[in-house]
Sequence to fold (632 residues):
Amino acid sequence: MENRRSFVKKSLIGMAGISLSANALSPYLLAKNKKKLGVALVGLGYYSTDLLAPALQLTNSCYLSGIVTGTPEKAEKWKRKYNIPDNNIYNYQNFDSIANNPDIDIVYVVLPTSMHAEFTIRAANAGKHVWCEKPMAVTELECQKMINACNENKVKLSIGYRMQHEPNTRKIINYRNNNTFGAINLVQSAAGYYDGRTDHWKFDKEMGGGAMYDMGVYPLNACRYVTGEEPISVMAQQFTNRPDIFNEVDETTLFQLEFPSGALANCSASFGMKVNNLQVTCTNGWYKLNPFQAYSGIRGSASNGDILDDKIRIKQ
Amino acid sequence: MENRRSFVKKSLIGMAGISLSANALSPYLLAKNKKKLGVALVGLGYYSTDLLAPALQLTNSCYLSGIVTGTPEKAEKWKRKYNIPDNNIYNYQNFDSIANNPDIDIVYVVLPTSMHAEFTIRAANAGKHVWCEKPMAVTELECQKMINACNENKVKLSIGYRMQHEPNTRKIINYRNNNTFGAINLVQSAAGYYDGRTDHWKFDKEMGGGAMYDMGVYPLNACRYVTGEEPISVMAQQFTNRPDIFNEVDETTLFQLEFPSGALANCSASFGMKVNNLQVTCTNGWYKLNPFQAYSGIRGSASNGDILDDKIRIKQ
Fold:
Protein backbone atom coordinates (compact mmCIF):
# COMPACT_ATOMS: atom_id res chain seq x y z
CA MET A 1 0.00 0.00 0.00
CA GLU A 2 1.25 3.43 -0.92
CA ASN A 3 2.23 5.56 2.01
CA ARG A 4 -0.36 8.28 1.49
CA ARG A 5 0.77 10.37 4.38
CA SER A 6 4.32 10.86 3.15
CA PHE A 7 3.05 11.31 -0.42
CA VAL A 8 0.74 14.10 0.60
CA LYS A 9 3.26 15.73 2.90
CA LYS A 10 5.79 15.84 0.06
CA SER A 11 3.14 17.30 -2.22
CA LEU A 12 2.37 20.01 0.28
CA ILE A 13 6.06 20.94 0.43
CA GLY A 14 6.12 21.01 -3.35
CA MET A 15 3.24 23.43 -3.46
CA ALA A 16 4.62 25.83 -0.93
CA GLY A 17 6.37 27.96 -3.53
CA ILE A 18 3.38 28.40 -5.80
CA SER A 19 1.62 31.72 -5.53
CA LEU A 20 -2.13 31.87 -5.97
CA SER A 21 -3.14 34.03 -8.93
CA ALA A 22 -6.65 35.40 -8.96
CA ASN A 23 -8.02 35.04 -12.47
CA ALA A 24 -11.19 36.47 -13.88
CA LEU A 25 -14.00 34.05 -14.66
CA SER A 26 -12.86 32.00 -17.63
CA PRO A 27 -14.59 33.15 -20.83
CA TYR A 28 -14.82 29.50 -21.86
CA LEU A 29 -16.84 28.55 -18.80
CA LEU A 30 -20.31 27.22 -19.49
CA ALA A 31 -20.17 27.99 -23.20
CA LYS A 32 -23.64 27.61 -24.63
CA ASN A 33 -22.62 25.19 -27.35
CA LYS A 34 -21.14 22.63 -24.96
CA LYS A 35 -23.18 19.49 -24.50
CA LYS A 36 -21.42 18.35 -21.33
CA LEU A 37 -19.39 20.13 -18.69
CA GLY A 38 -15.83 18.91 -18.27
CA VAL A 39 -14.75 17.73 -14.82
CA ALA A 40 -11.16 17.47 -13.60
CA LEU A 41 -10.60 15.16 -10.65
CA VAL A 42 -7.95 16.40 -8.19
CA GLY A 43 -6.52 13.44 -6.29
CA LEU A 44 -6.80 9.94 -7.72
CA GLY A 45 -7.30 7.81 -4.63
CA TYR A 46 -9.87 5.11 -4.00
CA TYR A 47 -12.88 7.37 -4.23
CA SER A 48 -11.90 8.92 -7.56
CA THR A 49 -10.74 5.59 -8.97
CA ASP A 50 -13.50 3.27 -7.88
CA LEU A 51 -16.52 5.54 -7.71
CA LEU A 52 -16.21 8.97 -9.33
CA ALA A 53 -14.48 8.07 -12.58
CA PRO A 54 -16.82 5.13 -13.33
CA ALA A 55 -19.83 7.29 -12.43
CA LEU A 56 -18.63 10.09 -14.73
CA GLN A 57 -18.92 7.62 -17.63
CA LEU A 58 -22.67 7.45 -16.96
CA THR A 59 -23.51 11.11 -16.47
CA ASN A 60 -25.48 13.10 -19.04
CA SER A 61 -24.49 16.63 -18.15
CA CYS A 62 -20.80 16.27 -17.33
CA TYR A 63 -17.85 14.04 -18.15
CA LEU A 64 -14.34 13.30 -16.99
CA SER A 65 -12.21 15.73 -19.00
CA GLY A 66 -9.08 16.04 -16.87
CA ILE A 67 -7.06 14.84 -13.91
CA VAL A 68 -4.71 16.38 -11.36
CA THR A 69 -2.27 14.02 -9.68
CA GLY A 70 1.18 14.03 -8.16
CA THR A 71 1.89 10.49 -9.35
CA PRO A 72 3.06 10.19 -13.01
CA GLU A 73 2.23 6.45 -13.11
CA LYS A 74 -1.39 7.22 -12.20
CA ALA A 75 -1.53 9.92 -14.87
CA GLU A 76 -0.36 7.43 -17.52
CA LYS A 77 -2.85 4.77 -16.43
CA TRP A 78 -5.82 7.16 -16.34
CA LYS A 79 -4.83 8.74 -19.65
CA ARG A 80 -5.05 5.36 -21.36
CA LYS A 81 -8.14 4.15 -19.54
CA TYR A 82 -10.23 7.29 -20.07
CA ASN A 83 -8.67 8.83 -23.22
CA ILE A 84 -7.65 11.98 -21.43
CA PRO A 85 -5.64 14.42 -23.63
CA ASP A 86 -2.14 15.31 -22.40
CA ASN A 87 -3.19 18.95 -22.17
CA ASN A 88 -5.80 18.04 -19.56
CA ILE A 89 -3.41 16.26 -17.21
CA TYR A 90 -2.01 18.38 -14.38
CA ASN A 91 0.20 17.91 -11.38
CA TYR A 92 0.09 19.92 -8.17
CA GLN A 93 2.83 22.25 -9.44
CA ASN A 94 1.20 23.32 -12.70
CA PHE A 95 -2.38 23.05 -11.43
CA ASP A 96 -3.05 26.79 -11.56
CA SER A 97 -2.56 26.87 -15.32
CA ILE A 98 -5.84 24.96 -15.54
CA ALA A 99 -7.30 28.48 -15.75
CA ASN A 100 -6.44 28.50 -19.45
CA ASN A 101 -8.05 25.15 -20.26
CA PRO A 102 -11.51 25.41 -21.84
CA ASP A 103 -12.07 21.63 -21.42
CA ILE A 104 -12.22 22.00 -17.65
CA ASP A 105 -15.40 23.60 -16.34
CA ILE A 106 -15.40 22.03 -12.89
CA VAL A 107 -12.59 21.06 -10.54
CA TYR A 108 -13.52 18.23 -8.21
CA VAL A 109 -11.30 18.28 -5.08
CA VAL A 110 -10.90 14.70 -3.83
CA LEU A 111 -7.88 15.29 -1.57
CA PRO A 112 -7.32 14.81 2.15
CA THR A 113 -9.53 17.18 4.12
CA SER A 114 -6.74 19.51 5.18
CA MET A 115 -6.09 20.30 1.49
CA HIS A 116 -9.71 21.10 0.60
CA ALA A 117 -9.51 24.80 1.39
CA GLU A 118 -6.30 25.42 -0.54
CA PHE A 119 -7.33 23.56 -3.69
CA THR A 120 -10.86 24.91 -3.66
CA ILE A 121 -9.51 28.45 -3.43
CA ARG A 122 -6.89 27.79 -6.15
CA ALA A 123 -9.55 26.30 -8.43
CA ALA A 124 -11.87 29.25 -7.80
CA ASN A 125 -9.03 31.65 -8.53
CA ALA A 126 -8.48 29.75 -11.78
CA GLY A 127 -12.07 30.58 -12.67
CA LYS A 128 -13.35 27.02 -12.32
CA HIS A 129 -16.48 25.87 -10.57
CA VAL A 130 -15.64 23.66 -7.60
CA TRP A 131 -16.96 20.44 -6.28
CA CYS A 132 -15.25 19.65 -3.00
CA GLU A 133 -15.48 16.32 -1.23
CA LYS A 134 -16.98 16.08 2.23
CA PRO A 135 -16.16 17.12 4.88
CA MET A 136 -15.88 20.63 3.48
CA ALA A 137 -12.78 21.59 5.48
CA VAL A 138 -11.19 21.29 8.90
CA THR A 139 -12.40 24.58 10.37
CA GLU A 140 -15.31 26.95 9.90
CA LEU A 141 -12.82 29.68 8.98
CA GLU A 142 -11.49 27.57 6.10
CA CYS A 143 -15.05 26.96 4.93
CA GLN A 144 -15.78 30.67 4.92
CA LYS A 145 -12.62 31.39 2.93
CA MET A 146 -13.68 28.79 0.36
CA ILE A 147 -17.12 30.36 0.06
CA ASN A 148 -15.60 33.82 -0.24
CA ALA A 149 -13.15 32.73 -2.94
CA CYS A 150 -15.92 31.19 -5.02
CA ASN A 151 -18.15 34.24 -4.57
CA GLU A 152 -15.33 36.62 -5.51
CA ASN A 153 -14.54 34.59 -8.64
CA LYS A 154 -18.23 34.17 -9.49
CA VAL A 155 -17.96 30.38 -9.60
CA LYS A 156 -20.20 27.80 -7.97
CA LEU A 157 -19.14 25.76 -4.95
CA SER A 158 -20.77 22.45 -4.15
CA ILE A 159 -19.83 19.94 -1.44
CA GLY A 160 -19.73 16.28 -2.45
CA TYR A 161 -22.40 15.19 -0.02
CA ARG A 162 -24.88 13.18 -1.96
CA MET A 163 -27.63 11.84 0.26
CA GLN A 164 -30.00 14.75 -0.36
CA HIS A 165 -30.21 13.53 -3.98
CA GLU A 166 -30.93 9.89 -3.12
CA PRO A 167 -34.60 8.94 -3.72
CA ASN A 168 -35.33 7.34 -0.34
CA THR A 169 -33.59 10.17 1.45
CA ARG A 170 -35.63 12.65 -0.56
CA LYS A 171 -38.71 10.75 0.51
CA ILE A 172 -37.95 11.14 4.20
CA ILE A 173 -37.07 14.80 3.66
CA ASN A 174 -40.54 15.13 2.17
CA TYR A 175 -42.03 13.47 5.25
CA ARG A 176 -40.71 16.47 7.15
CA ASN A 177 -41.79 18.97 4.49
CA ASN A 178 -45.30 17.49 4.43
CA ASN A 179 -45.42 16.99 8.21
CA THR A 180 -46.41 13.37 7.46
CA PHE A 181 -45.65 12.07 10.95
CA GLY A 182 -45.90 15.27 12.99
CA ALA A 183 -43.13 16.79 15.04
CA ILE A 184 -39.74 15.11 14.97
CA ASN A 185 -38.79 13.93 18.45
CA LEU A 186 -35.62 11.89 18.12
CA VAL A 187 -33.11 11.06 15.41
CA GLN A 188 -30.96 8.01 16.09
CA SER A 189 -28.22 7.42 13.58
CA ALA A 190 -24.89 5.67 13.29
CA ALA A 191 -22.40 5.45 10.44
CA GLY A 192 -19.12 3.62 10.49
CA TYR A 193 -16.88 1.05 8.94
CA TYR A 194 -14.00 -0.96 10.27
CA ASP A 195 -10.80 0.62 8.99
CA GLY A 196 -8.14 -2.04 9.37
CA ARG A 197 -5.30 0.07 8.01
CA THR A 198 -2.55 1.16 10.34
CA ASP A 199 -1.28 4.20 8.44
CA HIS A 200 -3.55 6.53 6.50
CA TRP A 201 -4.15 10.25 6.32
CA LYS A 202 -7.55 9.64 7.96
CA PHE A 203 -5.67 8.78 11.17
CA ASP A 204 -3.68 12.03 10.97
CA LYS A 205 -5.03 15.02 12.85
CA GLU A 206 -3.18 17.61 10.77
CA MET A 207 -4.68 16.23 7.58
CA GLY A 208 -8.22 16.44 8.91
CA GLY A 209 -8.55 12.80 9.92
CA GLY A 210 -10.87 11.19 12.44
CA ALA A 211 -14.16 9.32 12.39
CA MET A 212 -16.28 12.38 13.16
CA TYR A 213 -14.95 14.29 10.14
CA ASP A 214 -15.11 11.31 7.83
CA MET A 215 -18.20 9.35 8.87
CA GLY A 216 -19.81 11.76 11.33
CA VAL A 217 -20.99 14.01 8.51
CA TYR A 218 -23.54 11.35 7.57
CA PRO A 219 -25.51 11.18 10.82
CA LEU A 220 -24.87 14.91 11.34
CA ASN A 221 -26.28 15.84 7.94
CA ALA A 222 -29.06 13.29 8.36
CA CYS A 223 -30.13 15.15 11.50
CA ARG A 224 -30.06 18.41 9.56
CA TYR A 225 -32.05 17.21 6.55
CA VAL A 226 -34.46 15.17 8.64
CA THR A 227 -35.31 18.10 10.91
CA GLY A 228 -34.71 20.93 8.45
CA GLU A 229 -33.01 22.75 11.31
CA GLU A 230 -29.56 23.64 12.60
CA PRO A 231 -28.61 22.36 16.06
CA ILE A 232 -28.53 24.78 18.98
CA SER A 233 -26.46 22.56 21.25
CA VAL A 234 -23.92 19.83 20.67
CA MET A 235 -22.33 17.30 23.01
CA ALA A 236 -19.83 14.60 22.07
CA GLN A 237 -17.70 11.82 23.51
CA GLN A 238 -14.69 10.21 21.86
CA PHE A 239 -13.43 6.66 22.31
CA THR A 240 -10.85 4.32 20.91
CA ASN A 241 -10.19 0.60 21.25
CA ARG A 242 -6.93 0.88 19.26
CA PRO A 243 -4.99 3.67 20.95
CA ASP A 244 -1.80 2.74 19.11
CA ILE A 245 -3.44 3.69 15.80
CA PHE A 246 -5.93 6.30 16.96
CA ASN A 247 -3.51 8.38 18.99
CA GLU A 248 -4.32 11.66 17.21
CA VAL A 249 -7.91 11.35 16.06
CA ASP A 250 -11.12 9.71 17.21
CA GLU A 251 -11.85 6.10 16.32
CA THR A 252 -15.44 6.51 17.52
CA THR A 253 -17.43 9.60 18.42
CA LEU A 254 -20.87 9.59 20.00
CA PHE A 255 -22.65 12.91 19.70
CA GLN A 256 -25.94 14.46 20.71
CA LEU A 257 -27.73 17.41 19.20
CA GLU A 258 -30.59 19.61 20.32
CA PHE A 259 -32.69 21.51 17.75
CA PRO A 260 -34.80 24.67 18.10
CA SER A 261 -38.04 22.68 17.66
CA GLY A 262 -37.10 20.46 20.60
CA ALA A 263 -36.02 17.55 18.41
CA LEU A 264 -33.05 15.62 19.80
CA ALA A 265 -30.45 13.46 18.09
CA ASN A 266 -28.29 10.66 19.44
CA CYS A 267 -25.63 9.66 16.93
CA SER A 268 -22.45 7.65 16.41
CA ALA A 269 -19.58 7.77 13.93
CA SER A 270 -16.81 5.22 13.81
CA PHE A 271 -13.74 3.76 12.11
CA GLY A 272 -14.04 0.76 14.44
CA MET A 273 -17.36 -0.80 13.48
CA LYS A 274 -19.55 -1.50 10.47
CA VAL A 275 -22.78 0.33 11.21
CA ASN A 276 -25.21 2.26 9.08
CA ASN A 277 -28.65 3.18 10.34
CA LEU A 278 -31.04 6.08 10.70
CA GLN A 279 -34.22 5.96 12.73
CA VAL A 280 -36.54 8.92 13.18
CA THR A 281 -39.18 9.02 15.91
CA CYS A 282 -42.01 11.48 15.40
CA THR A 283 -45.10 12.33 17.38
CA ASN A 284 -47.32 10.34 15.02
CA GLY A 285 -45.02 7.62 13.70
CA TRP A 286 -41.54 6.72 12.66
CA TYR A 287 -39.36 5.94 9.67
CA LYS A 288 -36.00 4.32 9.30
CA LEU A 289 -33.33 3.59 6.75
CA ASN A 290 -30.79 0.80 7.15
CA PRO A 291 -28.43 1.37 5.47
CA PHE A 292 -29.03 5.10 5.11
CA GLN A 293 -25.84 6.19 3.35
CA ALA A 294 -24.42 3.19 1.48
CA TYR A 295 -23.36 3.77 -2.12
CA SER A 296 -26.23 1.59 -3.27
CA GLY A 297 -29.32 -0.04 -1.87
CA ILE A 298 -30.70 2.46 0.65
CA ARG A 299 -33.55 0.59 2.31
CA GLY A 300 -36.10 1.24 4.97
CA SER A 301 -39.68 1.49 6.08
CA ALA A 302 -42.11 3.80 7.79
CA SER A 303 -44.89 3.38 10.32
CA ASN A 304 -47.51 4.20 7.66
CA GLY A 305 -46.50 1.10 5.69
CA ASP A 306 -44.25 2.86 3.19
CA ILE A 307 -41.46 0.62 1.93
CA LEU A 308 -38.37 2.68 1.20
CA ASP A 309 -36.46 0.68 -1.36
CA ASP A 310 -35.88 2.08 -4.83
CA LYS A 311 -32.96 -0.24 -5.45
CA ILE A 312 -30.99 2.56 -7.10
CA ARG A 313 -27.64 1.08 -8.08
CA ILE A 314 -24.56 2.59 -9.70
CA LYS A 315 -23.26 0.25 -12.40
CA GLN A 316 -19.50 -0.21 -12.02
CA MET B 1 -57.97 11.83 38.05
CA GLU B 2 -56.89 11.11 41.57
CA ASN B 3 -54.16 13.33 42.88
CA ARG B 4 -51.55 10.65 43.43
CA ARG B 5 -48.96 12.98 44.78
CA SER B 6 -51.07 14.22 47.68
CA PHE B 7 -52.37 10.68 48.27
CA VAL B 8 -48.90 9.32 48.62
CA LYS B 9 -47.68 12.21 50.72
CA LYS B 10 -50.56 11.68 53.14
CA SER B 11 -49.80 7.98 53.26
CA LEU B 12 -46.19 8.70 54.07
CA ILE B 13 -47.27 10.92 56.96
CA GLY B 14 -49.58 8.15 58.13
CA MET B 15 -46.75 5.66 58.18
CA ALA B 16 -44.33 7.82 60.10
CA GLY B 17 -45.45 6.52 63.50
CA ILE B 18 -45.15 2.84 62.65
CA SER B 19 -42.10 1.10 63.97
CA LEU B 20 -40.50 -1.64 61.91
CA SER B 21 -40.53 -4.95 63.75
CA ALA B 22 -38.01 -7.54 62.64
CA ASN B 23 -39.78 -10.88 62.51
CA ALA B 24 -38.27 -14.27 62.09
CA LEU B 25 -38.86 -16.04 58.81
CA SER B 26 -42.55 -17.00 58.81
CA PRO B 27 -43.02 -20.72 59.54
CA TYR B 28 -45.80 -20.73 56.93
CA LEU B 29 -43.52 -19.55 54.19
CA LEU B 30 -43.10 -21.94 51.31
CA ALA B 31 -44.98 -24.75 53.04
CA LYS B 32 -44.42 -27.92 51.08
CA ASN B 33 -48.11 -28.68 50.67
CA LYS B 34 -48.93 -25.37 49.01
CA LYS B 35 -49.65 -25.58 45.32
CA LYS B 36 -49.28 -21.87 44.65
CA LEU B 37 -47.50 -19.05 46.43
CA GLY B 38 -49.70 -16.19 47.56
CA VAL B 39 -48.82 -12.71 46.35
CA ALA B 40 -49.92 -9.46 47.98
CA LEU B 41 -49.82 -6.39 45.75
CA VAL B 42 -48.78 -3.21 47.56
CA GLY B 43 -50.14 -0.20 45.68
CA LEU B 44 -53.10 -0.60 43.33
CA GLY B 45 -52.29 1.86 40.56
CA TYR B 46 -52.39 1.31 36.82
CA TYR B 47 -49.68 -1.31 36.74
CA SER B 48 -51.23 -3.50 39.45
CA THR B 49 -54.74 -2.99 38.09
CA ASP B 50 -54.23 -3.40 34.38
CA LEU B 51 -51.27 -5.75 34.20
CA LEU B 52 -50.26 -7.55 37.39
CA ALA B 53 -53.67 -8.62 38.70
CA PRO B 54 -54.86 -9.95 35.32
CA ALA B 55 -51.53 -11.73 34.83
CA LEU B 56 -51.75 -13.31 38.29
CA GLN B 57 -54.97 -15.04 37.14
CA LEU B 58 -52.89 -16.89 34.54
CA THR B 59 -49.89 -17.95 36.59
CA ASN B 60 -49.28 -21.56 37.62
CA SER B 61 -46.96 -21.08 40.59
CA CYS B 62 -48.44 -18.06 42.31
CA TYR B 63 -51.74 -16.24 42.68
CA LEU B 64 -53.15 -12.98 43.93
CA SER B 65 -53.86 -13.67 47.61
CA GLY B 66 -53.83 -10.19 49.13
CA ILE B 67 -53.71 -6.44 48.59
CA VAL B 68 -52.28 -3.45 50.42
CA THR B 69 -53.88 -0.10 49.65
CA GLY B 70 -54.55 3.23 51.31
CA THR B 71 -57.86 3.66 49.46
CA PRO B 72 -60.86 1.82 50.99
CA GLU B 73 -62.87 2.09 47.76
CA LYS B 74 -60.12 0.27 45.88
CA ALA B 75 -60.01 -2.42 48.57
CA GLU B 76 -63.74 -3.02 48.20
CA LYS B 77 -63.57 -3.19 44.42
CA TRP B 78 -60.63 -5.58 44.35
CA LYS B 79 -62.14 -7.75 47.10
CA ARG B 80 -65.23 -8.35 44.96
CA LYS B 81 -63.39 -8.70 41.65
CA TYR B 82 -60.76 -11.17 42.85
CA ASN B 83 -62.48 -12.83 45.84
CA ILE B 84 -59.87 -11.62 48.30
CA PRO B 85 -60.64 -12.54 51.93
CA ASP B 86 -60.97 -9.62 54.37
CA ASN B 87 -58.05 -10.97 56.36
CA ASN B 88 -55.78 -10.51 53.35
CA ILE B 89 -56.58 -6.84 52.81
CA TYR B 90 -54.16 -4.38 54.41
CA ASN B 91 -53.64 -0.66 54.54
CA TYR B 92 -50.34 1.14 55.01
CA GLN B 93 -50.95 1.41 58.77
CA ASN B 94 -51.51 -2.27 59.53
CA PHE B 95 -49.21 -3.56 56.79
CA ASP B 96 -46.60 -4.98 59.18
CA SER B 97 -49.12 -7.44 60.63
CA ILE B 98 -48.91 -9.24 57.29
CA ALA B 99 -46.13 -11.17 59.07
CA ASN B 100 -48.80 -13.33 60.68
CA ASN B 101 -50.66 -14.16 57.46
CA PRO B 102 -49.84 -17.59 56.00
CA ASP B 103 -51.69 -16.74 52.76
CA ILE B 104 -49.06 -14.16 51.85
CA ASP B 105 -45.75 -15.61 50.72
CA ILE B 106 -44.61 -12.72 48.58
CA VAL B 107 -45.09 -8.98 48.89
CA TYR B 108 -45.00 -7.19 45.54
CA VAL B 109 -44.08 -3.51 46.02
CA VAL B 110 -45.75 -1.49 43.25
CA LEU B 111 -45.43 1.94 44.86
CA PRO B 112 -43.69 5.14 43.77
CA THR B 113 -39.95 4.60 43.62
CA SER B 114 -39.14 6.63 46.72
CA MET B 115 -41.23 4.13 48.77
CA HIS B 116 -39.55 0.99 47.41
CA ALA B 117 -36.82 0.81 50.04
CA GLU B 118 -39.14 1.31 53.01
CA PHE B 119 -41.76 -1.22 51.93
CA THR B 120 -39.23 -3.76 50.78
CA ILE B 121 -37.50 -3.57 54.15
CA ARG B 122 -40.82 -3.73 56.04
CA ALA B 123 -41.91 -6.74 53.97
CA ALA B 124 -38.57 -8.47 54.57
CA ASN B 125 -38.83 -7.76 58.27
CA ALA B 126 -42.31 -9.32 58.14
CA GLY B 127 -40.64 -12.47 56.84
CA LYS B 128 -42.05 -12.18 53.34
CA HIS B 129 -40.23 -12.64 50.09
CA VAL B 130 -40.20 -9.42 48.09
CA TRP B 131 -40.79 -8.52 44.52
CA CYS B 132 -40.07 -4.84 44.03
CA GLU B 133 -40.98 -2.91 40.91
CA LYS B 134 -38.29 -1.28 38.84
CA PRO B 135 -36.40 0.93 39.32
CA MET B 136 -35.16 -0.75 42.48
CA ALA B 137 -34.78 2.48 44.50
CA VAL B 138 -33.62 6.07 44.24
CA THR B 139 -30.06 5.58 45.51
CA GLU B 140 -27.50 2.81 45.62
CA LEU B 141 -27.51 3.10 49.43
CA GLU B 142 -31.24 2.34 49.53
CA CYS B 143 -30.67 -0.65 47.24
CA GLN B 144 -27.99 -2.00 49.55
CA LYS B 145 -30.26 -1.60 52.59
CA MET B 146 -32.99 -3.55 50.77
CA ILE B 147 -30.55 -6.34 49.92
CA ASN B 148 -29.26 -6.42 53.51
CA ALA B 149 -32.78 -6.57 54.98
CA CYS B 150 -33.71 -9.49 52.73
CA ASN B 151 -30.48 -11.32 53.51
CA GLU B 152 -30.91 -10.79 57.25
CA ASN B 153 -34.48 -12.08 57.14
CA LYS B 154 -33.53 -14.96 54.84
CA VAL B 155 -36.11 -13.96 52.24
CA LYS B 156 -35.66 -13.59 48.50
CA LEU B 157 -35.59 -10.21 46.77
CA SER B 158 -36.43 -9.88 43.09
CA ILE B 159 -36.76 -6.70 41.02
CA GLY B 160 -39.73 -6.53 38.67
CA TYR B 161 -37.67 -6.18 35.54
CA ARG B 162 -38.96 -8.73 33.12
CA MET B 163 -37.14 -8.55 29.80
CA GLN B 164 -34.57 -11.20 30.72
CA HIS B 165 -37.46 -13.72 30.74
CA GLU B 166 -38.90 -12.69 27.36
CA PRO B 167 -38.11 -15.26 24.62
CA ASN B 168 -36.72 -12.88 21.99
CA THR B 169 -34.66 -11.10 24.60
CA ARG B 170 -33.35 -14.46 25.79
CA LYS B 171 -32.44 -15.21 22.21
CA ILE B 172 -30.29 -12.10 21.86
CA ILE B 173 -28.71 -12.77 25.26
CA ASN B 174 -27.78 -16.16 23.83
CA TYR B 175 -26.24 -14.47 20.77
CA ARG B 176 -23.80 -12.93 23.23
CA ASN B 177 -23.32 -16.16 25.21
CA ASN B 178 -22.66 -18.09 21.98
CA ASN B 179 -20.60 -15.28 20.44
CA THR B 180 -22.88 -15.61 17.40
CA PHE B 181 -21.95 -12.27 15.86
CA GLY B 182 -18.55 -11.66 17.47
CA ALA B 183 -17.62 -8.73 19.66
CA ILE B 184 -20.35 -6.24 20.50
CA ASN B 185 -19.43 -2.80 19.17
CA LEU B 186 -22.43 -0.55 19.70
CA VAL B 187 -25.78 -0.76 21.43
CA GLN B 188 -28.33 1.82 20.30
CA SER B 189 -31.53 1.85 22.26
CA ALA B 190 -34.40 4.18 23.09
CA ALA B 191 -37.46 3.73 25.29
CA GLY B 192 -40.14 6.26 25.94
CA TYR B 193 -43.78 7.16 25.84
CA TYR B 194 -45.62 10.44 25.74
CA ASP B 195 -46.88 11.18 29.21
CA GLY B 196 -49.61 13.77 28.75
CA ARG B 197 -50.43 14.11 32.43
CA THR B 198 -49.62 17.32 34.22
CA ASP B 199 -49.46 16.02 37.80
CA HIS B 200 -48.08 12.61 38.70
CA TRP B 201 -45.53 11.24 41.12
CA LYS B 202 -43.30 10.44 38.13
CA PHE B 203 -42.78 14.18 37.69
CA ASP B 204 -41.78 14.57 41.35
CA LYS B 205 -38.11 14.39 42.18
CA GLU B 206 -38.60 13.43 45.85
CA MET B 207 -40.72 10.45 44.84
CA GLY B 208 -38.11 9.13 42.46
CA GLY B 209 -39.64 10.49 39.27
CA GLY B 210 -38.02 11.22 35.93
CA ALA B 211 -37.69 9.52 32.57
CA MET B 212 -34.28 8.03 33.31
CA TYR B 213 -35.54 6.21 36.42
CA ASP B 214 -38.77 5.11 34.81
CA MET B 215 -37.91 4.36 31.18
CA GLY B 216 -34.11 4.57 31.25
CA VAL B 217 -33.86 1.22 33.02
CA TYR B 218 -34.93 -0.48 29.77
CA PRO B 219 -32.10 0.70 27.51
CA LEU B 220 -29.72 0.62 30.48
CA ASN B 221 -30.55 -2.99 31.31
CA ALA B 222 -30.59 -3.86 27.62
CA CYS B 223 -26.99 -2.67 27.42
CA ARG B 224 -26.14 -4.81 30.45
CA TYR B 225 -27.79 -8.03 29.24
CA VAL B 226 -26.67 -7.55 25.64
CA THR B 227 -23.02 -7.09 26.63
CA GLY B 228 -23.03 -9.17 29.80
CA GLU B 229 -20.90 -6.41 31.31
CA GLU B 230 -21.20 -3.47 33.68
CA PRO B 231 -20.33 -0.02 32.31
CA ILE B 232 -17.05 1.60 33.27
CA SER B 233 -18.06 5.12 32.23
CA VAL B 234 -21.35 6.94 31.94
CA MET B 235 -22.28 10.27 30.36
CA ALA B 236 -25.75 11.79 30.16
CA GLN B 237 -27.65 14.85 28.99
CA GLN B 238 -31.09 15.93 30.11
CA PHE B 239 -33.68 17.89 28.13
CA THR B 240 -37.24 19.05 28.38
CA ASN B 241 -39.70 20.58 25.95
CA ARG B 242 -42.29 21.12 28.72
CA PRO B 243 -40.38 22.96 31.45
CA ASP B 244 -43.63 23.87 33.25
CA ILE B 245 -44.26 20.16 33.93
CA PHE B 246 -40.72 18.83 34.00
CA ASN B 247 -39.29 21.39 36.39
CA GLU B 248 -37.90 18.80 38.85
CA VAL B 249 -37.10 15.75 36.77
CA ASP B 250 -35.93 14.91 33.27
CA GLU B 251 -38.44 14.63 30.44
CA THR B 252 -35.74 13.12 28.20
CA THR B 253 -32.30 11.78 29.01
CA LEU B 254 -29.72 10.75 26.45
CA PHE B 255 -26.95 8.63 27.90
CA GLN B 256 -23.79 6.92 26.74
CA LEU B 257 -21.98 3.98 28.26
CA GLU B 258 -18.54 2.47 27.82
CA PHE B 259 -17.92 -1.19 28.70
CA PRO B 260 -14.69 -3.00 29.63
CA SER B 261 -14.69 -4.94 26.32
CA GLY B 262 -14.76 -1.65 24.37
CA ALA B 263 -18.46 -1.89 23.55
CA LEU B 264 -20.24 1.47 23.52
CA ALA B 265 -23.88 2.36 24.03
CA ASN B 266 -25.88 5.37 22.89
CA CYS B 267 -29.30 5.44 24.51
CA SER B 268 -32.39 7.55 25.11
CA ALA B 269 -35.18 7.54 27.69
CA SER B 270 -38.19 9.82 27.53
CA PHE B 271 -41.60 10.86 28.81
CA GLY B 272 -41.94 13.08 25.74
CA MET B 273 -41.97 10.61 22.85
CA LYS B 274 -43.20 7.17 21.90
CA VAL B 275 -40.07 5.23 21.05
CA ASN B 276 -38.99 1.67 21.64
CA ASN B 277 -36.02 0.18 19.87
CA LEU B 278 -32.82 -1.75 20.43
CA GLN B 279 -30.15 -2.25 17.79
CA VAL B 280 -26.90 -4.07 18.42
CA THR B 281 -23.93 -3.78 16.08
CA CYS B 282 -21.33 -6.53 16.33
CA THR B 283 -18.11 -7.24 14.49
CA ASN B 284 -19.79 -9.92 12.36
CA GLY B 285 -23.38 -8.81 12.14
CA TRP B 286 -26.25 -7.13 13.93
CA TYR B 287 -29.59 -7.76 15.57
CA LYS B 288 -32.44 -5.51 16.53
CA LEU B 289 -35.73 -5.53 18.37
CA ASN B 290 -38.45 -2.96 17.71
CA PRO B 291 -40.24 -2.84 20.09
CA PHE B 292 -37.80 -4.34 22.57
CA GLN B 293 -39.70 -3.83 25.83
CA ALA B 294 -43.41 -3.60 25.01
CA TYR B 295 -45.75 -5.69 27.15
CA SER B 296 -46.46 -7.89 24.16
CA GLY B 297 -45.19 -8.47 20.69
CA ILE B 298 -41.42 -8.07 20.94
CA ARG B 299 -40.24 -8.23 17.33
CA GLY B 300 -37.00 -8.07 15.48
CA SER B 301 -34.47 -9.58 13.17
CA ALA B 302 -30.81 -10.42 12.87
CA SER B 303 -28.23 -10.24 10.12
CA ASN B 304 -28.08 -14.05 9.93
CA GLY B 305 -31.73 -14.15 8.84
CA ASP B 306 -33.21 -14.95 12.24
CA ILE B 307 -36.70 -13.57 12.67
CA LEU B 308 -37.32 -12.62 16.28
CA ASP B 309 -41.05 -12.79 16.69
CA ASP B 310 -42.54 -15.30 19.11
CA LYS B 311 -45.78 -13.40 19.35
CA ILE B 312 -45.94 -13.94 23.10
CA ARG B 313 -49.07 -12.16 24.30
CA ILE B 314 -50.56 -11.69 27.74
CA LYS B 315 -54.31 -12.24 27.57
CA GLN B 316 -56.11 -9.38 29.35
In short: The mean pLDDT of chain A is 90. Helices of chain A lie at 4-15, 46-56, 72-82, 116-125, 140-152, 167-177, 211-214, 217-227. DSSP finds eight helices and 14 strands in chain A. Residues 140-152 of chain A form the longest helix (13 residues).
